[in-house]
Amino acid sequence: MHIAPRDNGNMPIVGVDHPLVPLCYFNIVRLRAGEAFVSDVPGYETCIVAATGTVSVTVGEEVFSGIGKRRANVWDAEPEGVYVPVGAVARIVADAETECFIAGAKCDEVFAPFAVREADIDPVQYGSDETKTHRKIKHILGQKYHGRVGRLLVSELYTVGAGGWSGFPSHKHDTERLPVETRHDEVYNFRFNPPHGSGLQMMQREEGKPGDAYHIVDGSTVCVDKGYHPCAVLPGYEMYYFTILGGLTQRPLVQYFQPSHADQIETIPGIKDMIAKFK
């Protein structure tokens, strides 16, 4: 499902118990300096990420100040964020004009809030220009936070260079059948550099049958509920997508690679390291 960019008025783009991706939550909050927003998402743990600008986040008695180093866009610096446990209310105050992403996953375990600073980001780069799969992933809530987070995975994905594919070899994670695959709902929000760039999101829901394709632009949101879902960016442009994964029974992601393309796992440099970082 493709959700075209719009002024959401700080209301959820993917709300609680969404009919396609009920395990995920997503909101974009835009604030001027000095403005505040209260985030209260019952039944979901969340992560507040400063896409641009700087914020202070209060969770209970704890205050996390100076979150966010980016000014111009998501290519400007490393991400920073705050983990908010299920049942907690977060108050966001903008220190400067800001855009915040609020990512969430359904969860019934309560953990302690914490900040993810620039130095805490876990990066991985894989692929190559030759295979048209060169990209970088910045894990905000990744593998290193197992035991401190319930079901939520949050990362930022960048194509390296101008043009190319992401999410390939095609994979899916819509069925709980361990150890082969886990059920994880997924939500993306895309950005392009320059902003007038665009790309393509494929969605093949049934093996051996043609799927759907969406024209994605700066600010597009995509809900991945079922099937194989590679995407591509036009030549001459960089692509970024904020990624939210919510697991049904566990946090580690087990991807099932489409058999017709799975052999290419052996040809793409570093892809096995990338797969391991989501587990």
Can you characterise this structure?
It is a single chain. By secondary structure, the chain is mainly beta. It has a single domain (2-277), classed as Jelly Rolls (Sandwich). The chain has one helix spanning 271-277, and strands spanning 2-3, 24-31, 36-39, 44-52, 55-59, 62-67, 81-84, 90-94, 98-106, 114-116, 122-126, 135-141, 152-159, 164-166, 171-172, 174-177, 181-193, 198-203, 212-217, 221-224, 231-233, 238-247, 256-257. The strands form five sheets. Strands 1, 11, 12, 13, 16, 17, 20 and 22 form an eight-stranded antiparallel β-sheet that branches. The protein has a five-stranded antiparallel β-sheet with strand order 2-9-4-7-10, with no helix packed on it. A hairpin with a 3-residue loop joins β16 and β17. The model has no long low-confidence stretch (mean pLDDT 92).
Brief characterization of the structure:
One of its GO terms (biological process) is inositol catabolic process. The protein is mainly β.
Topology:
Blueprint lengths: L1 E2 L20 E8 L4 E4 L4 E9 L2 E5 L2 E6 L13 E4 L5 E5 L3 E9 L7 E3 L5 E5 L8 E7 L10 E8 L4 E3 L4 E2 L1 E4 L3 E13 L4 E6 L8 E6 L3 E4 L6 E3 L4 E10 L8 E2 L13 H7 L2
Antiparallel strand pairs: 1-20, 2-9, 3-8, 4-7, 4-9, 5-6, 5-8, 7-10, 11-12, 12-13, 13-22, 14-21, 15-23, 16-17, 17-20, 17-22, 18-19, 18-21
